[in-house]
């Protein structure tokens, strides 16, 4: 079936280090990409998004990079904190004509050691 | 707090039954989306409504249906429940019809016994 491919890794980092979470997406026609953070017992929380006409976007402590050539998306978290521990999902949307359907990856678990 | 409210938080029922999940979107949001999250399938898109009209459909089973009411709240109806329907069901909302952040509620956990 269709999917945005995270390999379900677990990323363990030390508090204060930078984290990089990677995502390979499958559809070269995708126009919109978004990262979510999900904590246990909660719904996905929006982190940052990027459209296909951009290759980088920065937020507070987070940066998303988009490489359309190799269909790769990454989320960089600066100065990772224990509160950043969660599962991170990337998602893609194909076309506005298809409505707001998001296709989610499998998720990466980020563990931050104090 | 995302501003999206889902009720109930938990539902326990038996096979063959029917349940209704409710979602109130964030104030001002016209779109409502439903997703299913299970351990083996991850987060799967079910359906999208914008201002009362269906905009997109995912792999939603025929036993499942949804609607968005004039006050913009939405309901997801699941009938003839099977064990495999046990999952977390999330509602999300956004301002417009797509290509913008969707804000998720905390979900309804459905357990089929």
Computed Rg of chain A:
14 Å
Question: Biggest sheet of chain B, in brief?
Answer: 7 strands, mixed
Mean pLDDT of chain A, to the nearest integer, reads 90
Outline the low-pLDDT stretches of chain A: none
- What's the shape of chain A? globular
Which overall shape of chain B is indicated by the principal axes computed on the Cα atoms? globular
Please give the most extensive interface between any two protein chains, plus how many residues each contributes: A-B, 26 and 28 residues
Unreliable residue runs of chain B: none
Oligomer: heterodimer
What does the model show?
The complex is a heterodimer of chains A (114) and B (113). In chain A, the strands form two sheets. In chain A, strands 1, 3, 4, 8, 9 and 10 form a six-stranded mixed beta sheet that branches. A four-stranded antiparallel beta sheet of chain A has the order 2-7-6-5, with no helix packed on it. The model of chain A has no long low-confidence stretch (mean pLDDT 90). The N and C termini of chain A lie far apart (39 Å). Chain A is built from no helices and ten strands. Chain A has strands at 10-14, 19-24, 32-38, 45-51, 56-58, 62-67, 72-77, 86-93, 103-104, 108-113. Chain A has 114 residues and is an all-beta fold. Chain B is an all-beta fold. Chain B has strands spanning 5-7, 10-13, 19-24, 31-38, 42-50, 53-57, 64-68, 74-78, 87-94, 103-104, 108-112. In chain B, strands 2, 4, 5, 6, 9, 10 and 11 form a seven-stranded mixed beta sheet that branches. A four-stranded antiparallel beta sheet of chain B has the order 1-3-8-7, with no helix packed on it. In chain B, strand 5 and strand 6 (53-57) form a beta hairpin. The termini of chain B are far apart. The mean pLDDT of chain B is 95. The chains are: A mainly beta (114), B mainly beta (113). Chains A and B meet through strand 3, strand 4, strand 8 and strand 9 of A and strand 4, strand 5, strand 9 and strand 10 of B.
């Amino acid at each position: 079936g269709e999917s945005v491919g995270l390999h379900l890794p677990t990323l363990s980092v030390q508090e204060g280090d930078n984290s990089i979470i990677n995502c390979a997406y499958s559809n070269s026609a995708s126009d919109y990409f978004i990262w979510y953070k999900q904590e246990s017992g909660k719904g996905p929380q929006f982190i940052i998004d990027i459209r296909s006409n951009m290759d980088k976007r920065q937020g507070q402590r987070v940066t998303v990079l988009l490489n359309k050539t190799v269909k790769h998306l990454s989320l960089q978290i600066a100065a990772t904190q224990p509160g950043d521990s969660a599962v991170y999902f990337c998602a893609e949307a194909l076309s506005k004509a298809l409505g707001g359907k998001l296709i989610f990856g499998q998720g990466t678990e980020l563990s931050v050691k104090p | 707090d995302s501003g999206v409210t889902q009720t109930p938080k938990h539902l326990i029922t038996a096979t063959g039954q029917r349940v209704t999940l409710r979602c109130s979107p964030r104030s001002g949001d016209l779109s409502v989306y439903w997703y299913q999250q299970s351990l083996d399938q991850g987060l799967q898109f079910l359906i999208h409504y914008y201002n009362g009209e269906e905009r997109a459909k995912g792999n939603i089973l025929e036993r499942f249906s949804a609607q968005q009411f004039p006050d913009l709240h939405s309901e997801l109806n699941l009938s003839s429940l099977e064990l495999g329907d046990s999952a977390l069901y999330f509602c999300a909302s956004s301002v417009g019809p797509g290509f913008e952040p969707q804000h998720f509620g905390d979900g309804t956990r459905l357990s089929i016994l």
